[in-house]
Amino acid sequence: MFRWKKRRNKRRIRLSVSPALVVLLFLFALIDRQKLLLQILLAAGLHECGHFFALRLFGGEIDALRLTAFGAEMRIRHSERLSYSRELAAVLAGPAVNLLCALLLGRMAVALDWERGYMLSGIHMLLALFNLLPMRALDGGRALYLFLSWCIEPVTAERMMHIVSGVVLCGMLFLGAALQGAVGLQLPLLMLELWFVVCWCMETGIVKPLRTG
Known about the structure:
The chain is an alpha/beta fold and 213 residues long. Helix 2 (37-57) packs across helix 4 and helix 3 (84-112) packs antiparallel against helix 5 (139-151). The chain contains seven helices and four strands. The longest helix has 30 residues, at 154-183. Strand 3 (61-68) and strand 4 (71-77) form a beta hairpin. Strands 1-4-3-2 form a four-stranded mixed beta sheet. The chain has helices spanning 19-31, 37-57, 84-112, 115-131, 139-151, 154-183, 187-204, and strands at 2-6, 14-17, 61-68, 71-77.
């Protein structure tokens, strides 16, 4: 998942980490029985590298990078160089990297009879598909918003995205409830459902994100 804000002033790249992300990682580590946290973080890092290098390729200069529980936010300089098509390509670059990694790891797993390779391939695939969901907090929603803004205009695109995100939220909550009913109460599913709700509330303005600094 990836968002960026356009800025014109020249500054060095600043990196910050949200306390909420630290708490989220700590909670995940507590319930991570299969020890997947490191592999997930590596897949997420490659995902963000896809965004980063695509932005640099298209002329965007990174001003600040903030890691949050809702994804990475990059502030960029020289935003006038990013047309809708270039920004759309940069948004999709993250999931594209994960899909490529999933394909390569899957083929390696088959060729080498590497059982763990299947798991790593699955992590990349799931991360890519998850980020392609059409919610504004995710790459799929950002890409859809840019495409709609390109075809019509941003205000109408914003309104349409609120509707689409609401439908996706209802679908995810229904699916989560169905899975809970089938396999029993699962903390990761509850955390994911809560994440979707908070993202939708922030997108619609019901909840304002906290800013520091």
